[in-house]
Amino acid sequence: MILNSKIVSELKTYGLIRSLNDPLLQSPEGIATIAKKAQTENLLNDSRLKYLSKIFHNLLDSASKKKFTENLLVLDSQHKPIGSANWLLVRKAALLHCGCMLICFNNERKILITKRAENISDPGTWDVSAGGGANTVHPLGLKENAIKELFEEIFSATVEEIPASVEKYAG
After folding, report:
1. Which residues neighbour 161 within 8 Å (Cβ) at sequence distance 6 or greater?
2. What is d(CA 41, CA 20) in angstroms, rounded to the nearest whole number?
3. Cα–Cα distance measured from residue 129 to residue 154, given in angstroms and rounded to the nearest whole number
4. Are 70 and 133 in contact (CB under 8 A)?
5. Less CB within 10 Å around the terminal CB: N or C of the chain?
6. Which residues are within 8 A (CB) of 115 and not within 5 positions of it... i.e. 6 or more apart?
7. pTM for the complete prediction?
């Protein structure tokens, strides 16, 4: 385990863990429990979030470590950015985070919905046209993220494959 005595001391002081050997620190689910409790009690800050995210990622199996590398921007109860954390930790702990959604309409005002792929979260469920987590609250960054999600989810394209003619709309 990655030891940061200052953060561990803070986690103990606030009653989030009992000791360095606390069972909650031994599994991804335990780390998610600590993170959720810290956010609920307004005790989550950037350094604690980074520490928990690092421990969480190190506890994942090797396949999950490769798959879940993206970080999301975590928000406090006032929707102000706290810091970023591993995507899977944010999902497991149900942390308030930043994201974007696109809803595409055709000329008949019908909404394009998509069935989620089997290799992503919530496989096989119906969803809005496109969306995903974000690592910014800046409007231009969200717009750029939304375009990226649209191309990934609707056109199965990577960021590198987004046409330059479309990229101009992101800024």
Report:
1. 151, 155
2. 21
3. 7
4. yes
5. C
6. 124, 125, 126, 127
7. 0.76
For the chain, what percentages of helix, strand and coil (3-state, to nearest 5) are there?
A: 45, 15, 40
The pLDDT value given to residue 165: 59
Six token digits for residue 127: 């969803």
Picking from 31-35, 71-75, 156-160, which range would have the lowest pLDDT averaged per residue?
A: 156-160
Kindly report, residue by residue over 35-92, the tens digit of the pLDDT.
999 999 999 999 999 999 999 999 999 998 888 888 999 999 888 999 999 999 999 9
Dist. CA 148–CA 156, nearest whole Å: 10
Question: Helix/strand/coil (H, E, C) string of 97-146?
Answer: ECEEEECCECCCCCECCEECCCCCCCCCCEECCEEEECCCCCHHHHHHHH
Q: Do 115 and 141 meet the contact criterion of CB atoms below 8 Å apart?
A: no
- Residue tagged 């970023």 (tokens): 84
> Would you tell me how many other CB atoms lie within 10 Å of the CB of residue 86?
28
Q: How far is the C-alpha of 170 from the C-alpha of 146, rounded, in Å?
A: 9
For 4-15, b where at least 16 C-beta lie within 10 A, e where not — what string? beebbebbeeee
